[in-house]
Amino acid sequence: MKKQRRAILVFLFLSLLAVGGLFLGALSSKTALAIASDRYEQLQTFSKVLNLIQKYYVEDVDVDKLIRGAIKGMLNELDPHTNYMPKEMFSDFEKETSGEFGGLGIEISVQNGILTIISPIEDTPAWKAGIKAGDKVISIDGDSTKGMNLVDAAQKIKGKIGEKIRLGIFREGFEKPKEFVIVRDTIKIRSVKYTNLQDGYAYVRLTSFIENSSTDMEKALKKHIKKDKDLKGLIIDLRNNPGGLLKQAVEISDLFLEEGLIVSTIGRDNKDKESQFARKGDDLGDFPIIVLMNEYSASASEILAGALQDNKRALIMGQTSFGKGSVQSVIRLGDGSGLKLTVARYYTPSGRSIQAEGIAPDVSIENVNAEAFEKAIVNKTVKREVDIQGHLENDRSKAKKDSLEVGGLAWYKHVRSQKEKNLSNRDKLLSNDFQVLQAYNYLKAWKVFNKIQN
To answer: Which one is predicted more confidently, 254 or 405?
Structure first.
């Protein structure tokens, strides 16, 4: 047993030398040997503690469980995005990035020690149950989440398709936590959602960055251009988008950039710098773009927004984003488990790090509840010259009594008076989402300002 343990420690010692080669290579051989020797002594201590537990602990122990716990404890000393994933969890993680998996459809994080919903994925069980970004998960199936890390939370949330799970949720405005019962289901992510806003304008909602997101985005916009013969302006909606694959953020940025830097990643000690650039000749053309963001737009969403903002390709509207400016490398381990390790920070083309700061919008607009907006605008009465008894008629054309109802106000009143099932996708979107409506108005004004400038 001792020989076997010694052999394992020697193997680990040699592995540390190999893995740390780049770092140790920059040091003198004497210094490098001292560092490696210190690591060997620490591993000996770890082995001794494990051996003592196996021999003398009052009950039988699961050694594999102890080692996994030690790994988790080690990673808990690092940032919250560095995680160890057991075999089954790592398999689920790989399925998630492909766009189909089983579960609730939520992105979670630990914020100030509290398990927090970053975003429910649209059209998933969590989203349909009413879970919202920013919700605090107080309990899972009656068990408190206090002190729970992401890995443990994910394992508790995981279950068979068709099984129910109870989430205790606290939300701003709640007097006390509320329990949500959700049925696990197969999650099929549709990451790109397109709506034709008519008159040459388009809206695309990106719910996440998964495999084929860039391809789906390109297909949707090329279909729009082919049908409408033009693309006068585009709204890219990244609100509540928790991020995803870096490669997809780069490829989507490239669709709108003719040239220029998209993003840079820099590793420890300002080494291992990598830069991604737009490729000439594969962009979709020159048209105004407005990107919508909020405080739950994170990671890959911020890479896309930062690239378009710094290259002066888009106007960013909404609220300051989440501020996740780190890059994780996913490493498959020998036993089928995985390690998600933070290896670098990313920087926008201008050299900004948005870590813990986020991307600030060019135009700050808070979201407004559709019903509150309706009360403010639909019941509003306006008096103009045409409403005054005895007014002079226009000498060129007869003024209409309902002239004050022409334009946006008339459209909004009409739409809100209709049953939703009778409305087009465009009218549903614009009448129910204040920020999208404002972005649409900005796009139309963009064309007018260009005419004035020219």
So the answer is: 254
**228 catalytic residue (yes or no):** no
Superfamily of structural domain 192-364 = 2-enoyl-CoA Hydratase; Chain A, domain 1 (3.90.226.10)
Residue 259 is predicted with a pLDDT of: 95
Q: Which of 139, 208, 214, 324 is catalytic?
A: 324
Q: Considering the candidates 237, 254, 310, 433, report the single residue annotated as catalytic.
A: 310
- Express each pLDDT in 374-387 by its tens digit: 777 766 666 778 77
Told to judge if 421 belongs to the known catalytic residues of this protein, a careful annotator would answer: no
Instruction: Kindly report, residue by residue over 105-155, the tens digit of the pLDDT.
Output: 998 988 888 999 999 988 899 999 999 999 999 999 999 999 898 888 988
CB 372 within 8 A of CB 389: no
| Topology annotation, domain 100-188 | Pdz3 Domain (2.30.42)
Beta bridge partners of 108: 117
**Per-residue tokens: 255:** 């669709």
* DSSP-assigned letter for residue 37: H
In the chain, where the domains are located: 2-61, 100-188, 192-364, 370-432
Q: For this structure, is 324 an active site residue?
A: yes
Q: What is the pTM of this model?
A: 0.84
Catalytic residue among 139, 191, 208, 299: 299
Quote the DSSP letter at residue 161. T
